[in-house]
């Protein structure tokens, strides 16, 4: 279930587990044709924990209009209105047929980025499920890319779109009103490139993390190890501002005198670098002999 790895010390939330389970399925079955059952299965993986929904593992059936909104609950921004529920099955029949025909070896193959971008926009325009359409649409884009290149992409597409959330909604709203999707495809291609770079950065970060522990594994006391692990948990981006002495005390629960000695020891061992003076002093992980990482807590 966890790909043979031990999970982190903090428990995964049902939403996170659902996304992980779905993406394993996306990558392991990327070459298979798209079917309604594929989408139903992914939807169950994502939302089996959600008791608010009327329909899980099937297309929406409610009579109310399906509006795609963002922002505050009391003042939502309506981006567009999807087709009514009674039109969903014929729309999705056409969608699945288009998806399979435009893949490699299909009757009407499309270039990789064009097909992936259109597959996402087309799916979001139908919005066939009661909830989870954004996550499913991103999974379809990854399935499309994987089919075109012949292997799973393993890029941070969902993470990157989430960071570009405002631009994403602006693009969706704009391209529900026009048949010219050129700007959408340009935007989507740029996001894919950013996702690729984000993945490379993350892989590099984990390699650097492994090298860090190779150098310092037997040099850290329990408090230091706890603080270092907390800093690494933030990933490549980390928190802004650096690790302060007060941060260290909160993480470890130790006294100020002991914390000061621990931090000085980490600097002397080459695990952390120090910037600033007095209350502005901050500490940063040193991930290589020449690089200081802005990964902090």
UniProtKB/TrEMBL annotation:
Fido domain span: 34-190
Highest taxon above the source species: Bacteria
Signal peptide span: none
A Pfam match: Fic
Keywords tagged on the record: ATP-binding, Nucleotide-binding
Keyword Transport: no
One Gene Ontology MF term: ATP binding
Keyword ATP-binding: yes
Active-site residues annotated for this sequence: 127
Residues holding ATP: 131-138, 168-169
Protein's name according to its UniProt entry: Fic family protein
The organism of origin for this protein: Celeribacter persicus
